[in-house]
Amino acid sequence: GAGALLVAGLADQTVRAEIQGAGGAATRATGRDVSRWAPPVAMGLGLGLAGAGVATRNGSLARTGRDAIVAMAAAELVGAAIKVLTGRARPDAGLGPGDFAPLQRAERDAAFPSGHTTMAFAFAAAVGRHSRSRAVRLGAYGAAGLVGAARIAADRHWTSDVVGGALLGTLAGHAVVRRLEPRASRLQVVPTLDDGGVGVALRVRF
Fold it and tell me: What are the CA-CA distances from residue 170 to residues 12, 42, 68, 140, 146 (Å)?
């Protein structure tokens, strides 16, 4: 992840020049349209999964939706804090990829990491952890990747902002699912029955 972030950082200016030079205003407009709908769609899908799971008494589906929502919220909070701490200028500000103003820019004006990408990958990671279907996992991560590409196309983020958001979102998704997964108690009371009668035994898992 660190290596990918470094490589992306070295290519920030080049990637921006290529994309903006080739597509211009049309590319930026498409990127903004995708960006506008990505967060509400992801949150709506999470709520839909949770609601469908509760309505059908499908615990796995309900947990998938719950974990996706929690993962997106957690990733967004951490990402917003990092944005303020780094204070990186957005590409359309015209200050270049190396302009950082720690604690001097509001979250909405800071670029690193991409919040849209962070949320999208948090959703994908949570859903992917719960699904055994390769098609579902590929679809979720593929859609998240499109969100990241849209943010670059909209000229609101550098490539390294998107890579950073993807890393943060993926980590958040996996961490939330791992944290919230049902776990058997480490200390269990087990009934026993043998020729000597009925009793109980303590079982400890290490």
Answer: 21, 14, 11, 12, 15
